[in-house]
Structure prediction request, 172 residues.
Amino acid sequence: MLNKIFLQGRLVADPELRHTQSGVAVASFRLAVDRDFKDRETGERKADFFNVVAWRQTGEFVSRFLAKGRLALVEGTLQNREYTDRDGNRRTATEVVASNVYFSDSRRDNDNGGYAPQPSRGGYNNAPAGGSYNNAPASNGGGYPASGGGYPAAPTVDQFADLTDDDGELPF
Prediction:
């Protein structure tokens, strides 16, 4: 079976961070994803709106570094959840459970190379050292993974010193 979803869109509002009774962080937010085509009658692009839930470190990352209007890439699974509303009616909610969340835009401050401030959150100046999250290389195109473990260190030239071009097909 396969259940994998990738969505790129803008946050409709600031993420909402909560904690379970056992102290586990969970952030929820709504993502607006533009459709690839324009409406024939109006000539405008429509958008679809997806509810996203991010747990633990991913949820903490989302609530700390993402805000309304930011472009984000969400990787996760699609899940249905049943609940009973206040009137006693059974309802079903479909939501994306995020396994990774990445920045998809860049908000660089031209003065010092840091992150531009977020008016509603006090800024990105408290971003992790090196401009990355979970030891991700700073040159990863602005994407900051929010899953545990992070990226391994970038390979160095010395790590490939013992490799040879056995078949003579490499250009060097």
